[in-house]
Design brief:
This protein is mainly α and 188 residues long. Helices cover 59% and strands 0% of the residues.
C-alpha cells in the first residue's frame, strides 16, 4: 500500500502544480503589455485619427495616410484609393506586424514618399491605436455615391438648360414655318 499512497501523493502534487501553472498563464495573458516595437506605449485613437486623416500633420512632414488609404471611421470621402483599405488591418495582421509596418514603411510605393520622413514612435502608437478601433467592416463605398451625385447634377444641368432655352428657337421656327407656307401657296 505504501507504493499506492506514494503514487496518489505524487498525482495530487502534479495536479496542484498544473492548477497553479494554469492560473499563472491566465493571469499573464491578461496582463497589459505593449509590443516591443512600440516600446510599451499606448497611443491615442483620437490623435491617430487626426494624423491618419491629415487634420494633424506628421512631425517629420510625411503625407497623411488617408491620401492613399481608405478606412472606416473617416468622414466622407473616407480616404484615397491608391493604397489598400486599412479597415480591420489591426485585427488581420496583429499589433506586432502593424508596429513593424508603421516604423519602417517599407512598401515600394511608400519608400520614396516617406524618405527621411518616418513617423515618430508616438505617431506610430497613435496611428496603431486608431487602426485598432477603426472598424471591422468594409469601408463605405464612395464611388457609387459620387456617381449618383454626378448623375443628379447632370440631370439638374440638362433641366436648367432646357428651361432656359425653351424660347430660343421660337423666332427661327416661326420664320421656317411661314416660308414653307408661302412656298406651298405659291405652287400651282
Amino acid at each position: 500500500m505504501c507504493a499506492l499512497d506514494s503514487l496518489r501523493n505524487e498525482a495530487a502534487r502534479f495536479h496542484r502544480r498544473s492548477v497553479v501553472l494554469a492560473a499563472l498563464v491566465l493571469a499573464l495573458a491578461q496582463w497589459p503589455i505593449g509590443t516591443a516595437a512600440d516600446g510599451g506605449k499606448k497611443g491615442s485613437a483620437e490623435q491617430g485619427s487626426r494624423l491618419f486623416s491629415g487634420e494633424t500633420h506628421f512631425a517629420r512632414g510625411g503625407p497623411s495616410c488617408a491620401a492613399c488609404h481608405p478606412v472606416e471611421g473617416l468622414p466622407f470621402p473616407g480616404g484615397g484609393t491608391m493604397g489598400p483599405d486599412l479597415t480591420g488591418a489591426y485585427a488581420k495582421f496583429g499589433p506586432e506586424a502593424l508596429a513593424t509596418v508603421l516604423s519602417t514603411l517599407f512598401f515600394p510605393t511608400m519608400n520614396p514618399v516617406f524618405a527621411g520622413k518616418l513617423l515618430t514612435p508616438a505617431e506610430q502608437a497613435d496611428v496603431q491605436a486608431f487602426l485598432a478601433v477603426a472598424g471591422t467592416g468594409p469601408a463605405q463605398a464612395v464611388t457609387g455615391r459620387l456617381f449618383l451625385c454626378g448623375l443628379l447634377l447632370l440631370a439638374a444641368a440638362v433641366a436648367l438648360i432646357a428651361w432656359l432655352g425653351r424660347t430660343r428657337l421660337r423666332g427661327v421656327r416661326a420664320a421656317l414655318v411661314a416660308g414653307a407656307r408661302r412656298r406651298r401657296e405659291a405652287r400651282p
